[in-house]
Each structure stands twice: as structure tokens, then as C-alpha cells.
Amino acid sequence: MKVLVPVKRVIDYNVKVRVKADQSGVELANVKMAMNPFDEIAVEQALRLKEAGKAEEIIAVSIGPTQNQETIRTALAMGADRGIHIEAPQDIEPLAVAKLLKAVVVQENPGLVLVGKQAIDDDCNQTGQMLAALLGWSQGTFVSGLEITGEKAIVIREVDGGLEHIEITMPAIVTVDLRLNEPRYASLPNIMKAKKKPLDSQNATDLGVDIAPRLTILKVEEPETRAAGVKVANVKELVSKLKDEAKVI
Amino acid sequence: MSILILCDHENGQLHSTTLNTVSAAKQIGGNIHLLVVGDPSGKVAKAAASIGGVEKVLAATNKALENKLAENLAPLLKSLAAGYSHIMAPANTTGKNVMPRLAALLDVMQISDIIKVIDADKFQRPIYAGNALSTVSSSDTTKVITVRGTAFEAAEENGSAAIETLDSAEDAGLSIYMKSELSSSERPELTSAPIVISGGRGMQDGANFAMLEKIADKLGAAVGASRAAVDAGFVPNDYQVGQTGKVVAPDLYVAVGISGAIQHLAGMKDSKVIVAINKDEEAPIFQVADYGLVSDLFDAVPELEKELG
Ligand SMILES: Cc1cc2nc3c(=O)[nH]c(=O)nc-3n(C[C@H](O)[C@H](O)[C@H](O)COP(=O)(O)OP(=O)(O)OC[C@H]3O[C@@H](n4cnc5c(N)ncnc54)[C@H](O)[C@@H]3O)c2cc1C
Predict the structure, then answer these.
(1) Residue A200 lies in a domain
(2) Ligand 1 contact, B245 CB (< 6 A)
(3) I need a surface site. Which of A2, A185, B219, B245 has the fewest CB within 10 A?
């Protein structure tokens, strides 16, 4: 079985983003970028499937500007076998991404697509579910446990009330949550090796997919910041403030 | 204009975020219809019918929908879509699971987690863990939207809408529900509780959460946690507050042994009053706390419990 893992290049999760002065978006120039953390978990899971003899080949796909090839190289350094880069605008929407991924799935015929549940830039939480819809495949979302047995897989989903177990039919889309695994770091030798792994690049427009945006961003602004509060000296003072000043208890 | 809302519910109880979603729909304007699935007793449909401003409740009784599997629910929503300008759901795990699948079936771009309605086409939503707010305008004919409950008032339960049953649905045969492991608690539900007390890595151990539970029981509060506390296995996943967990905005949020990473703040910084108890006076949580107490939590928390009487 081939496993396809889409990986997104986003602002590193440790960076505090800044909104551009003209309110057109957030500042991306000279900002540290990294692989979306949920996608690292997806790559890790693919590697574990391969190590367990359940997957033969892991293909990392990234859609976006040329720099996204760095993100693919990170996946290759973690252990993915080859990469596919699809050149597209930075702010391409999940629906268009799902359509492009569908085109890749048709070309590559994977048995499983492992997707991060959410990208930490646009926080949309859509791509995996959309891809499943376009392919007519089953979907296991927000997954913290995955057990594949032939044509079926059992997934454990993190839901509002706790956990849910469902059986899905392969091929399937699985969107991964934080507790599925802890991603490995790429070792220096593997980073060197990754430079020689195959990375194919194509243009979104060559895949015959309409990627025109459906949403227009009118403005991006900073949220209101909270006014700084006070330090209390002890628990007694805290309780009296909560009772008499804030009146919340 | 007509708006269809997919109701969320758990254990036969209408989820309060459905009421918030109705308020968001009212701001858009038009006839509001609610869809209830997976409600064999009819209790949720009845509760939905009592929400003010709702014209009609569709109760889908087909067995294929019982467990809200996205593969079966999205096609049903699609079959209803022609009659609606907007299809909405609370941005809970059910809505997050099924709505993007619906959006792709309709070939529209979903607008996730809205916090403000500007007009019928324009909405505001947080991006980058709420560190920026994006106002977007949609050109799609059907708007598929998920709604952040904490951003809208709860609609009143003073209505009496008609309930229509709907039997059509098919089992796509792609997935099978097996079982749930739900956390049970007598305390209020996290996202609608008036007071939330959360513990972080500083709690050191799951057993120590009993200290927070005692306070929660005195205050009628829910108990939450940071990701680090969930990852460490102190508490179950459904306690997680944050960018990728639950979003809460209670009257009072008490953060105990939580450093205040942006991913955690994303889930609680709209709380009315924030209290932080942390032994590190440099902890970033103090930058958003109305009342900060620099103290070892193992001293402060038992004292707080005593002080509350
Ligand atoms: C993709 C992604 C998504 C994430 N999503 C979330 C999310 O949804 N929610 C979330 O919470 N996090 C999330 N995180 C994690 C986040 O970045 C932080 O790692 C996490 O919030 C830290 O949890 P913490 O504050 O409990 O632990 P720490 O940062 O380790 O802080 C522990 C705090 O406890 C204090 N402390 C220790 N002992 C005591 C004591 N005895 N008395 C008093 N204080 C004490 C310390 O001073 C410290 O400030 C996410 C991260 C990533 C990468």
C-alpha cells in the first residue's frame, strides 16, 4: 500500500504572528516557517505503518509556492520516500487543495491518505473531510488511534464527549490529532540523504483543477488585547477580589 | 432566505452551542430550520422546537443517521441544500467532521468557526490561534458555516416550532460506528459552564486534579486542562482547552499550573475574568490574567478551597 501525506508549510507555532499594516494579511516575510505540526504527526504515522510492514511507500505532497519544497524535504528527512510539489499560490483555499489532492490520488492510487486535522495558520479543519467527499471515501477524523487490518481500519476519534471508535473502509482518509504519536526528529544523516530523494514538481494549472478562491479576504486585523490585570498577594485577597470587585463568585 | 442548522446533542441533551448557532442565524436573517439526527427518543427534537425564532424542526429518524457518521449525514444535508441559502452547525466535533464533507459535495468553500456576522455573505473568523481576525466575503451560492458558540448569545427557549419527520437517508456502507468512551461527569459541560477551573503540567499527576474538582464542586464549575496535562494522561482528551481543543468563555476562568502558551490562550482569552495561579512570576499567563497569584499551587489550591467555605 502507498500512503500519501499532504504537508503544509506554515509559520512556526512558536512565532507570534504580526498583522500587516495594510490589513491584507499577516506578515510572512522573514518569519520562521515550519511544517504544520499536525502534518508531522501524519508523516510519523505513515513511517510507523511502513516500519510495521503495512505500507510500502510514503509520498509527501505539498501545495503552495516553491519554498514548500523545503517542507517536503523535511518529510523526506523524517523518512518519506519521495515528494510531489504542486506549485500554487500561498493562500490557496482548502477546497482547491482538496481538488488538487484528488488529482494526485488519481495519479498515485494510495491506499491511505494521512492528513493533519487542522493547519495552525488558517485553522480551517476542512481539507481531509473535503478530499474524502470528492473521492467518495470514508473518513476517520481527529484520530488518536489507528489499526489497519486489510480492507478495514478501526480508528479512535477524539470527540467533544470523549472518544469514539469507528470502523472505516480502505482506501480511506484519516485526519490525525495530537495524541496519535510523537513525531521523530530527522537525524543529520537522514537530512543529507533526503536531498537525494526524488521530488517531482508540477503546476496546479496543469492538473486541470479550478483553484480560483471562493472567499475574498476583506481585512485581517489584530484582536483586542486584554488590559493587564493585577497581582494579588495571597489567596484571601484573591477570594475577596473575586467576590467584591469582579463579583463572579 | 432560509437557513438550515444541524443541531448538536449529546446523551439526549441538546448541546447549548446549538442555541448560540441559532443566534448567529438570526443575525443573518431568514427562516430558520433545524435538523436533528440520531435522536431516537425525540427528546432533542422537542428541545430544538422550543428555541425561539425557529420555524421548523426536521427530525431525521433513519437508522443510518443514528451515529452521525459523516459519510451518511453529508449526503442527507446535500439533498436538503437546494432549499437553503446557509447551512450551519456549531463548530463542535460533529460539525467539524461533517460540514466540510458537505461543502465539498456542494462544491463550496466552508467558512469555519465564525465569530461575527457582518451580513449574509460576510463573516469574521479567527486565524492563527486567534492572533488575527479575518473578515471574509463568500461568493458561493450556498454558504456552509460552522459557528463558534462562545461568540454569540444563547437564543431563548421560548418557541414552539413544528416538528416534521424525515425518513430519507441511505447508508453509504463506508463506515460503522462501534462504541464510545464518554467521560461522565455531574459537573456542567465545559463550553457552557459559567466557571471553569483548568489545570496544566504543573499539576504533576492526574490524582492531583481532585484538588481542582473539589473547588469546581463548590463553585458549580467545570474542569478543563492544557494540552500538556492531557498528553501526560492526567485527564481525558475532552478536557483540553485551546486552539485545537475546546473554546470556552466563562465568567471566570482559573488557570492553575498553566504557562499560557498562545495555543492555550486561544481557547480561553475571551473569558470575562481570568485568574492565574503559577509559581513562575514570568509565566505568560499573567499577561492575560485579571488576577494573578504567584504561588506554589500545592499551597494555594487547598487554601482556596478552604477560603471558599
Ligand atoms: C499544534 C499544536 C496545538 C496545540 N494545541 C493546544 C491546545 O489546544 N491547548 C493547549 O493548552 N495547548 C496546546 N498546545 C500546546 C502548547 O503549545 C503548550 O505546550 C501547552 O499549552 C503547555 O501546557 P502547560 O501550560 O500545562 O505546560 P507548561 O508550559 O509546561 O507550563 C506549566 C506551568 O506550570 C507552572 N508550575 C509548575 N509547577 C507548579 C507549582 N507547583 N505551582 C504553581 N505553578 C507551577 C510552571 O511555572 C509553568 O508555567 C498545542 C501545541 C501545538 C504545537
Answers:
(1) yes
(2) yes
(3) A185
Across the interface, do A120 and B129 touch by the CB < 8 Å criterion?
yes
Q: B257 C-alpha to center of ligand 1: Å?
A: 8
Which amino acid, one-letter code, is at A97? V
Domain assignment of residue A83, yes or no:
yes
* Adjacent-strand bridge partners of A82: A59
pLDDT of residue B121: 98
CA distances from B237 to A167, B190, B228, B254, B271 (A): 20, 12, 11, 19, 21
Where in the sequence is the domain holding A145, given as residue range(s)?
2-244
A132: phi then psi, degrees, rounded to nearest 5: -60, -40
**Residue at A165: amino acid letter:** H
Q: At residue A245, what is the residue type?
A: E
Cβ burial of A233 (10 Å; 0-12, 13-18, 19+) is: exposed
* Rounded (5°) CA angle A52-A119-A125: 95
How do residues A61-110 score in pLDDT, each as one tens digit? 999 999 999 999 999 999 999 999 999 999 999 999 999 999 999 999 99
Which residue's CA is the closest to the ligand 1 atom numbered 7? B242
Interhelix angle A68-78/A37-51, rounded to 10 degrees, is 30
Is A249 a domain residue? no
Count of structural domains, chain A = 1
ipTM of the complex: 0.97
Taking only the tens place, the pLDDT of each residue in A189-227 is: 999 999 999 999 999 999 999 999 999 999 999 999 888
* Residues B30/B21, Cβ–Cβ less than 8 Å: no
The kind and range of the H/E element at A178 are none
The CA–CA distances, whole Å, from A11 to A8, A30, A75, A183, B215 equal 10, 10, 16, 18, 39
Domain membership of residue A36 (yes or no) is yes
Other C-beta atoms closer than 10 Å to the C-beta of B16 total 17
Give the domain CATH number at A54: 3.40.50.620
Give start and end residues of each alpha helix (H) in A85-209.
94-108, 127-135, 188-194
In this prediction the pTM is 0.97
Q: Residue A17 carries which DSSP code?
A: P
- Sort B309 into a burial class: Cβ within 10 Å, 0-12 / 13-18 / 19+: exposed
Ligand 1 within 6 A of B50 CB?
no
The predicted-structure confidence for B192-240, as pLDDT tens digits, reads as follows 999 999 999 999 999 999 999 999 999 999 999 999 999 999 999 999 9
> Around Cβ A247, how many Cβ atoms within 10 Å?
10
Contact B219 A232 (CB under 8 A): no
Within 10 A of B238 (CB to CB), how many other CB atoms are there? 23
In A53-151, where do the E strands start and end? 57-64, 82-87, 112-116, 138-149
